[in-house]
Amino acid sequence: MARTSTKYAAVAASAPAASDVHPYDEAGWFARTLYLWATPLLQVGNDRQLDPTDLWPLQLDNTCAVVSRIFEPKFRATRSVVKTILSTYGWRFFLIGLLQVGSVLCTLYGPVVLRHVLEAMEAEDAGFDLSRVLYYVFSLFAVKVLQAVVAAHATFDNQVIMVKITSALQHLLFQKALVLDATCRRDKTAGEIANLFSSDIQWIINFSIFLNQLWLIPVQVVVILFMLYDVIGWATFAGAGVIVVTMVVNNVIARAQRAAFKEVMTRKDARMNVINEVFGAMQILKLNVWEEKFGDKITTFREAELTTLWKVWRLQSSVTFLLYTAPALVTTVSFAVYTLVMQQSLTSAKVFTALSLFTLLKYPMIGLPQIFATMMQAVVA
């Protein structure tokens, strides 16, 4: 009797059908540049509610099997999540950083155009140069279109990397959870493992999205301050002093936030341990009528966790208040020094140009502390 063998395959060996191919893979360079390959799905969503069958298949490069095949060997070699992410996707982060630099430069072109247009309108001797003004206006339009395309590609690539990192980390956690021995299972309860999947991984992913902002935002602040110096001179350093004071205060709050985040994680793990203990011994708990006893125990842990969460939100409220008042303080101090100390007059071109630059300065000042808070949560996780 001939011996027969059975071969099991999780994925069909045949090539995928045309309908199973992601539209991005078949799109040309022009469609990829302007995301025209997404138009059919947008049209369907505009006509009716989307169904799961309307969604595209996942690209092969973004599947967990392919991602883990690349990510896992590097993690085994380094035993560091950060080093593995940087060695695997570092070049992608670098390209995204270049795109984000281009988007920032396009943003800074607006105040330049505003200054030149207002100066052309204020020029009485030379007269109003219409051709020059039209040149700046149309160039601003072109730059803004370019910025929209560049920012869209940076965001899209960031989201793709986020999907890959999520798949890789969850794959590692699943693999680790399946091979835990009895000793490790006593040390790591099901509640702690569930926390790793639900919250800890998310903090790491959130920080990886903002990785380029750690160096891009300080560079953006320096460039904006240099442009302000060209407009209002030494008064810029008075505003920079306010920024430094704000950063010092924010650093103190960030350290307090890190300690609070650690306390939240500890209390959350303790509460989840009790909850898993209850679900794991539900029959014994019912037979001995211990519902109220364990209910009070869970409530006690939850109240302690809520107290710590309230502390975290108080710190976050302090950061928010500081960040939204700091730009107004920077503007007020800079204009006060320029007019009262330097005895200079403010023209329309200087006022509106400086205000537009101060507005641009507000966003990195708001974003940087939030990124530091996310980094602290990722470190704790």
UniProtKB/TrEMBL annotation:
It is a multi-pass membrane protein. The keyword Membrane applies. It holds the Pfam family ABC_membrane. Residues 94-377 form the ABC transmembrane type-1 domain. The keyword Repeat applies. Its main location: membrane. GO terms for molecular function: ABC-type transporter activity; ATP binding. Gene3D superfamilies: ABC transporter type 1, transmembrane domain (1.20.1560.10). It is found in: Endomembrane system. CDD domains: ABC_6TM_ABCC_D1 (cd18579). Keywords: ATP-binding, Membrane, Nucleotide-binding, Repeat, Transmembrane, Transmembrane helix, Transport. GO terms for cellular component: endomembrane system; membrane. The chain crosses the membrane at residues 93-114, 134-156, 203-226, 232-253, 321-341, 361-380. InterPro entries: ABC1_TM_dom (IPR011527), ABC1_TM_sf (IPR036640), ABC_transporter_C-like (IPR050173), ABCC_6TM_D1 (IPR044746). This is ATP-binding Cassette (ABC) Superfamily.
